[in-house]
């Protein structure tokens, strides 16, 4: 947000109505708002959460994150690019409503997307304004809750990522805990009980009634689809900035219970794995944990997707495990994750047949495969990287062969690529299908890896080498 804009001046004026010269007032330790002079030997007064939320620096940080994240418009149709002008005109009124506990969020836009394993996942897209306020709220709540969250919780937390949870699971297995209780919560984000969540928040932040009202209204804001608003009495839909920390507040109770029982576990959002030494111990613990989740937390365990099994047979955050020499465990990419990647690439290639290959690679293909690689690069995937590169080039040669269509056109391109006239004729007129020809020696020879490197196609093998070289060069 431009520090010279009228919007910021309004925020500064309304948030710091008591502001005077710095020599007459002392600034709070976090630089939030001017406060009464601090006398020697006295602790600075504690700011209320609503003041921290409405602090100019906090709002500016939230604004920049919302703009960077972009995202679709909510039910009001406002785009991210329209937010700045809207704030200039309306922020004073909105801020007053927030201070008085009268701000009413708009319904979220209901969107359903298919899950890779079947079914649909419900997303709730808040308006851009509500995303700004929720992001500012998240920044206020995080310092309160982060210190008390479990060390075994990794999802949506600063400085933690999925591979950290996977590495923790590997550590347990290396210590001899090679039976996993794989717990899948059924529609967790749709089932979060509002009353239990609000009681935990109010217990931790007593007296902050403006924040309590704001959170409760966000939880109970309806979901709109096709102009019809559905009331909500439970759940915190995925898609809003505050949803991750609210879900972690709920599931921290599970973390604490597992730790109280002495279980070794790792959790990323609603994906939770508990590790024990024997299958019998796993079955017994699983029954007890299910009872706690259902009766105490008022949530449901998906019995079809949950199981007690060996980790090598299960999938955790897209990864799996394998036995290495020396009785240690290794991390690999789960087979289903590879299958989904290939399905995605196959669909993209079908759409890319009418595009020029360099443009298709740069705009459509590289972002997908580079994103997938960046997530899974921590796994042991040397052999897989070679296989994926070969398969990917096969797919792209298939696009070329189909684009050429006519036999004489194929002959011309093969000759330009350096094949002899005799071999080009034999290959172009062999009457075999596109998939056979795109994987045949004549296409591999005419369009080798060097050709696709020239088109700047991302290579899994090269990416893996660069990643490992960078890891080795970094100081331990």
From TrEMBL:
Keywords: Antiviral defense, Magnesium, Metal-binding, Nucleotidyltransferase, RNA-directed DNA polymerase, Transferase
Top-tier EC class: transferase
Annotated transmembrane regions: none
An example molecular function term from Gene Ontology annotations: RNA-directed DNA polymerase activity
Compositionally biased region (Basic and acidic residues): 1-11
Region (Disordered): 1-29
Matching Pfam families: GIIM, RVT_1
Residues of the Reverse transcriptase domain: 94-321
Catalyzed reactions per annotation: DNA(n) + a 2'-deoxyribonucleoside 5'-triphosphate = DNA(n+1) + diphosphate
Phosphoprotein as UniProt keyword: no
A Gene Ontology biological process term: defense response to virus
E.C. numbers: 2.7.7.49
Presence of keyword Nuclease: no
Protein family: Belongs to the bacterial reverse transcriptase family.
NCBIfam families: group_II_RT_mat (TIGR04416)
Descriptive protein name: RNA-directed DNA polymerase
Record organism: Arachidicoccus rhizosphaerae
